[in-house]
Design goal:
6-stranded mixed β-sheet; metal-binding; 5-stranded mixed β-sheet; Purple Acid Phosphatase, chain A, domain 2; alpha/beta; single chain; 246 residues
């Protein structure tokens, strides 16, 4: 028995090597996994399930093939880039959508999983924007716009977000430890697994007056990283991006 967690691949037509790394990972590393959790930002940008690109369809086909071949389940938590992924694409890709904060039983240990953007409270500009773009009414209106217009809006937001990252320091991009403690205490867990910060690391600390761990999954830009869990334990694995293609 084995469960894998990945996040922040940011797939796009401009970075084919990451897409190839994902497909190789599914074919060579994840073959004995019973469950795959994707913790957001699988795509660089998402403007609606009604957009059909070769990349979207290819990823959906590969995920479905993986699920059927290995009798595996795939779960998805929205990221800040692809929070508009809906039930239509989830069905096409054989994924089950989960709430932004989800508790799971990970081989007998209650574990909290999430994308992780809600942990970065120092990034006040983003948190304000998040409240706006996650408004169900505004999302409905956005989905009613012509696809061509939504594409322009989506890429403008992406470009603005990337330019602002240059001026953000590590503390702003990292998680707020007080929020980590608050959420873990609220959910009554000793383990948290998330993405978003692109800083693959395992943090050991005390929560609920017991030993706790926070697994930051990391991104797939120059390396690939994933959390590997089985009944014997949980570990963070970091490998070269082309590891399974060598």
């Amino acid at each position: 028995m084995r469960t894998l967690f990945i996040a922040d691949l940011h797939l796009s037509e401009n970075h084919r090597h990451i897409t190839d790394a994902l497909f190789a990972f599914l074919e060579k590393e994840a073959t004995n996994a019973e469950t795959l959790y994707i913790l957001g930002d699988m795509f660089e940008v998402w403007i609606g399930d009604d957009e059909h690109t070769p990349l979207m369809d290819e990823v959906a086909q590969k995920l479905t093939s993986f699920a059927k071949k290995n009798n595996a389940k795939i779960f998805y938590i929205h990221g800040n880039r692809d929070f508009m992924i809906g039930k239509r694409y989830a069905k096409q890709a054989s994924m089950t959508l989960l709430p932004e904060h989800t508790e799971i039983d990970l081989y007998g240990t209650k574990t909290l999983i999430m994308h992780g953007d809600t942990l970065c409270l120092f990034d006040k500009n983003y948190q304000r924007m998040r409240k706006v773009i996650h408004n169900p009414v505004l999302q409905f209106i956005f989905n009613c716009l012509p696809l061509k217009l939504r594409k322009r809006i989506g890429w403008k937001i992406r470009t603005a977000s990337q330019s602002k990252k240059v001026y953000k320091n590590t503390n702003m991009m990292g998680v707020t430890e007080q929020e980590v403690t608050r959420l873990m205490e609220f959910h009554g867990v000793q383990r948290l697994i998330h993405g978003h910060t692109h800083q693959a690391f395992v943090h050991d600390f005390t929560v609920n007056e017991k030993a706790g761990q926070r697994f930051d999954v990391g991104d797939w830009y120059t390396n690939l990283s994933f959390v590997d869990a089985n009944p014997e334990g949980v570990e963070l694995v970091i490998l070269p991006i082309d590891y399974y293609q060598q």
